Here is the input.
Amino acid sequence: MDRNLFHVTPRGWAGLGLAAFCFAVLPAVVGSYWLSILTSAACFTMAASGVAFMYARLGMVSLTQVGLMGIGGWVALRLNYAFAFPFEVNLVLAALATMICGWVLALPALRMRGLYLALVTLMAAGGLEIIFSTFQFPNGGSGFWGVKIGSADPFRGPALAPGPAAYLRYVVVMVTLGFLFIEGHRRLFPGRAWALIRRSEAAAMAAGVNVTLYKTWAFGIAGLLAGASGTLLAGSLGLLDDGTFRSPESIMIFALSVVGGAQYWLGAVVAAVLYRVLPGLLNQWGVNADLAFVIFGAGLLHAVITAPDGIAGQIWGGIGRLMSRRKGGAE
Amino acid sequence: MKFKTSLMAVIALGVMAIAGQASAGPSCGMNTGQAATGKPIVIGGIYGNGAPGDWSSSTDSAAAYFACVNANGGINGRPIEYHVENDEWNPEAAARAAAKLVNDDKAVALVGNGSFIEMAVNAKTYADAGIMSMASACAISECFESSNIVSTNQGPLPSNLGAAQYAQEELGAKNVACIGLNIPDNGIWSCQAVIDFMTKRGGTGSMAMLNPGAPDVNSALLEAVSSGADTILMNLPAGLALAVLKAAQEQDLRDAYNWIAPTPLYDLSVPAAIGDYWNGKVYVNAELAPISVNGPDAQNWIAVLDAFGKPDDPRDTFGQAGYLSAEFFVKAALAMNPEDLDDRAKVTEAIKGIVGYRSDLMCGPYYVGDADFHMPNHAGYMVQIIDGGFKIVRDCYEFDSDYFNRHIELEKKLGLR
Here is the structure.
């Protein structure tokens, strides 16, 4: 086993500290409105972590992440109504099913890079959007699609998280596990292979790296995380609506991951905060939440022009400079 | 001399009464003419405004009525603080809105809700929190099949049935194509009821569904036309129904079909919007009394909007329904001990205890009762869009469907039949 696998870096400690804060403090101090927003933001953090991971590790642009979330949510709802499995079993099965979908999506996309890969994934998102809007999400009906006419049957949430505060804690734990899953991969042999592929596919192949396998692997991880986040979103609402998973949302989550900083775990958190918390804040201030789109645009311009590492990169850079100044002062 | 003086006094009083009536403002709650200054009673309201439509006229009218009540003594001196949230046709926003109103703002009731989404997401929240939602513009099945939601409007299922029943009985409809939104608890639910109704009466029916996020009305219209229908039912919000009519006009389909619609097309702006081409050709089921009925509540609703609403607040069925929900809530609240108005359980109990409230806006009595389903309003009018307005072509009538059997049973139990 790699001896560095369990080494916790300062940034890692910061992440664990933030997770502990979100687990212990936030649910106890915020009202129901913010519990709802933060739960949604936590779900999208997990989805953003997947798309950011693909971009940061392999330079692959996936514009179908929110569509994959929809697949995860669809599978979780279908399982919920078809069987009496606990929520956690549905969560794992939905994540695995979405991972397989990620692989399937990866196969035709593997030969492409850059803009073409982005376009293929965007088309996949468009296709998923049409499927969701045509067939809708399961609501307790029979047959493959599980849609019945009229009111939805009750949804079984996790027994461990009966209320909104407990559910936020539950989602925070799952998101933390998601980040650890990515970090574990980064530190093991897939991480080394991805690093090599990102530098040069030809060099990676020459070094004996199975490029197809590792690219597919990355798509699978992004799918797994998207599927889990879609399930968690379904668990928070008890139902899903096709409007949540439209293709522009996939573009938005990718763009915000770049604004947040795809290299860092904090970038995914920033992306989800911008995506869900900022509109909630504007709404509470009585300002039209659509103003958030203007801010997103400005943020993206800022990231492209002056901050290629995103907001998270700037934050870590600022902290690093502060620490070295302090060190210098102490010496 | 004495007789003359008395006569003059009577005439003077009569003139004053007439003058007073002519200048009378709206009538609201306690009608004291004094603004309420006590501790506010928090009431919530949720509407949906986003693609594909604005569903806020019910909360607009409820807000105007509450403002009028507050200016007239409130609820025994306590003003109503009406908190309104937009669900943006989005489940997450709907859940947030309910969480804020129910848990953070501590609303004791929700009044005037109008949405395609929020009732499905929040029905359980309301039941768990023991809060009643006196909704007004319900469009989905959960609204009518939940313990803690009751609406003054009928929703698409009865209104569609009313329109189809009229078309079958008066226009000779044998095959109805229902164009609706592809939402299982809205368009599919209510269009299927029409197909079942037509089949029961020896006819047939079909549905053409639109994607709510990207509605392609022309495709849906072509699908309806290709079904072989003789009648097209536009089971859609007003904006989309107008788009269907526009598409049909471009293809000059007016005379090939009967054109019917549920209540969303009963909006005073619609006759002008559809133009002369459709004069006398479109029939609409009105869930509440058309404005031409002009009863006391109908007049008061307009007076309330004129005095306390915004100039652009819609004068449509859902506005009437919002006004009615607010009026019924105030009536129930005024009958309560003022000290109990902060106690959600007692407010819920008072709302569930409503039986037999009447209004000229509704064909039947309004009631709530303690049940897992609520649909007090299931009779309506049929109107024709003609000469730039609406003409009543069928007065209050009940709709023929087994769906209403349990409601009729409940009404019998409550002594309303």
